[in-house]
Design brief:
Blueprint: E1 2-3, H1 4-10, H2 16-24, E2 28-30, E3 33-35, E4 41-42, E5 48-50, E6 53-54, E7 62-67, E8 96-97, E9 106-112, H3 115-122, E10 130-137, H4 142-149, E11 152-154, E12 157-159, E13 163-170, E14 175-182, H5 189-196, E15 201-209, E16 212-213, E17 222-224, H6 227-246
Parallel strand pairs: 9-15
Antiparallel strand pairs: 1-4, 2-3, 2-5, 5-6, 7-9, 7-17, 8-9, 10-14, 10-15, 11-12, 13-14, 15-16
The structure holds uracil.
């Protein structure tokens, strides 16, 4: 159960304050009954009618998904390719991805029907770390790692990875594996960082988003986030955006 004005605002009908006014003016009906009391609560299944309009309200849902390779991170694809939503046919809600992973990138992707949450997670100021494991062609040198650590200019913005670690090199196959943690959000940022140091990505996987990891999920599997995980992510993002405003 939620306060009626919160439900109305979250459904996008108007602001919470305007909803309070409408309730006081007797313009809100719940299951056919006029409601004028501000403390009144309602739930997702209730029929809410305001000025002749039915309010569409969906319970908020949040998913952690292990995106496979060869899947697009959009809700529809003109070329008929598989989209991440094809893995959510059993979810009767209009959810969408939070940010994007490239067609050939695998790993952790969040999906939700909560627009406010999605915007916060993608906000450049929210500074949530994303950990990528990347396999590249060629042998990456300590000097190239240093070049990434001091920051790289992409789209007029200097990207400072919070951490870059050379994990392994395979001299026979001439490949290297790096872990890169970034909190900025620029398109194709890992591939562009790797290109900047003169290499090419063979495989890219997002292993973590903030404190969330793939855990025991297998490629193509999903799980719901717990209310606590959602709250912690919200708080992380909000505190960063507030700190930035102050500075
Ligand atoms: N950086 C990329 O280059 N691609 C992704 O899919 C994610 C981050």
């Amino acid at each position: 159960m939620e306060r009626l004005q919160k439900i109305i605002a979250e459904a996008g009908y108007c602001s919470r304050r305007k909803a309070e006014e409408l309730i006081k003016q007797g313009k809100v009906f719940v299951n056919g009954k006029k409601v004028c009391e501000l403390g009144t609560k309602a739930s997702f299944g209730d029929q809410i009618l305001i000025e002749g309009k039915l309010i569409e309200y969906q319970e908020k849902e949040y998913y952690l998904f292990y995106k496979p390779r060869g899947v697009v991170t959009t809700t529809k694809d003109d070329k008929g390719r598989k989209t991440v939503l094809d893995f959510f046919d059993d979810v009767g809600k209009r959810i969408y991805p939070v940010g994007r992973l490239d067609y050939d990138t695998t790993g952790l992707l969040l999906l939700t029907n909560d627009g406010e949450f999605a915007n916060l997670m993608m906000h450049p100021k929210s500074k949530i770390d994303k950990l990528y494991v990347v396999k590249v062609k060629g042998i990456v040198t300590p000097n190239e790692v240093k070049k990434l650590k001091v920051g790289v200019k992409l789209d007029d913005k200097v990207i400072y990875p919070s951490r870059v670690k050379l994990k392994r090199i395979d001299k026979k196959k001439m490949t290297s594996i790096l872990e890169i943690t970034i909190h900025d959000g620029v398109n194709h940022e890992v591939k562009r960082l790797i290109k900047y140091i003169g290499h090419e990505v063979i495989k890219l996987k997002r292993e973590a988003f903030g404190f969330l990891t793939l855990g025991s999920l297998k490629s193509g599997e999903k799980r719901k986030l717990t209310p606590k995980e959602v709250k912690v992510l919200y708080n992380m993002a909000v505190s960063e955006t507030i700190n930035k405003k102050k500075n």
